[in-house]
Specification:
365 residues, B_amino_transII, D-amino Acid Aminotransferase, Chain A, domain 1, 18 strands, EC 2.6.1.42, binds pyridoxal-5'-phosphate, D-amino Acid Aminotransferase, Chain A, domain 2, 9-stranded mixed sheet, amino-acid biosynthesis
Length: 365
């Protein structure tokens, strides 16, 4: 695809879609990431040729050569976002162009070709159009979209691949919190770090998750829900969770989150929270927070609330912090008022129930 050409999607409808009755049964309790729609998007890339063969087709296994580069050197990136059914029967997404920009940034870091932002957003729209019946009804449900790209070239040499496959799959998801928002307990990993300066921490690549799994398993072994990573240089400052950014709320109403220095994933929820909190009159700051200060300020009561944020859970209070040295609570272990107000405001904007002064909501259908 050259310069300004628009890539056209060929629609090849699934000839054996799930029946309406079976789909309704699947949508009754979809959980997270277990149920998938009838279709997927695929777009191919070859060096010298560009992007080609954009399709919406039946979701199916992807044939892969055992020497496909991704299987050996992990050139892979992804995104995660949601489509919502509105009260008036439409379908919306939240800030999809921000995901498009981040996808391109991740691609650049992994020496992969960048997909034009408009093609990225179009790919989501075309899949949602075809699979719109898979978007759950009701307050809590949404259609989780997973765009991803990997090196498909059949070649074992170590260099950026010359061929890639971009794809989008979609998965209806139910309420993240069944039975209300529950504060999580987090484990501060003494052994593992997630990202070093100059590394891939700011790219949304599968490799970051591969390296975080053993730390997450350690968190579970210690009775925790999620792992907190400290910085790789001094093991002093808080980076983020395995897949969510962290915010700290102080007694004077200030919100602080660690700065984007390249070791943290630039969350779109994070950025939205910074904007919403500032608009609500909070002082907001991006600066490093040491684990020692976290502990001291929680004990003194200066630190009132901590929450994690990301697309899947939106905003999730952190109640208890456990480390090799023991444990402490933040805000008595209960969800705090600032956390819950920001959560409600963000959810209401995403669901079209509150004003959207930033024009974050993108109408798909
Ligand atoms: C995706 C992700 C987040 C959250 O990003 P959102 O855009 O808010 O969904 C945070 N941390 C990591 C490591 C992630 O992969």
């Amino acid at each position: 695809m050259s310069g300004g050409d628009k890539l056209e999607f060929e629609i090849r409808p699934n000839s054996a879609p799930v029946s309406a009755a079976d789909r309704a049964a699947l949508l009754a309790n979809p959980g997270f990431g277990r149920v998938f729609t009838d279709h997927m998007v695929t777009i191919r890339y070859a060096a010298g040729k560009g992007w080609y063969d954009a399709r919406v087709e039946a979701r199916a296994p992807i044939p892969m050569d055992p020497a496909a580069a991704v299987l050996h050197y992990a050139q892979e990136i992804f995104e995660g976002m949601k489509a919502y059914r509105t009260a008036s029967g439409g379908v919306t997404m939240f800030r999809p162009y921000s995901n498009a920009v981040r996808f391109a940034a991740s691609a650049q870091r992994m020496a992969m070709p960048t997909l034009p932002e408009q093609t990225f957003v179009d790919s989501l729209r075309r899949l949602i159009e075809v699979d719109r019946d898979w978007i759950p009804e009701g307050e809590d449900g949404s259609l989780y979209l997973r765009p991803f790209m990997f090196a498909s070239e059949v070649f074992l040499g170590v260099r950026p691949a010359n061929e890639y496959l971009y794809a989008v799959i979609a998965s209806p998801v139910g309420a993240y919190f069944s039975g209300g928002v529950k504060p999580v307990t987090v484990w501060v990993s003494p052994d593992y770090t997630r990202a070093a300066p100059g590394g891939t921490g700011a790219a949304k690549c599968g490799g970051n998750y591969a390296s975080s799994l053993v730390a997450q398993a350690e968190a579970i072994e210690h009775g925790c829900d999620q792992v907190v990573f400290l910085d790789a240089v001094e093991r002093r400052f808080v980076d983020e969770l395995g897949g969510m950014n962290l915010f700290f709320v102080y007694d004077d109403g200030t919100l602080v989150t660690p700065p984007l220095t390249g070791t943290i994933l630039p969350g779109i929820t994070r950025e939205s929270v910074l904007t919403l909190a500032a608009a609500a009159g909070h002082r907001v700051a991006e600066h490093p927070i040491s684990f020692a200060d976290w502990q001291t300020d929680a004990a003194s009561g200066r630190l009132r609330e901590v929450f994690a944020c990301g697309t899947a859970a939106v905003i999730n209070p952190v109640g208890t912090v456990r480390s090799a040295d023991g444990e402490f609570r933040v805000g008595g272990g209960e969800p705090g008022p600032v956390t819950m107000a920001l959560r409600q405001q963000l959810v209401d904007i995403q669901r079209g129930k509150a004003a959207d002064p930033q024009n974050w909501v993108y109408r798909v259908l």
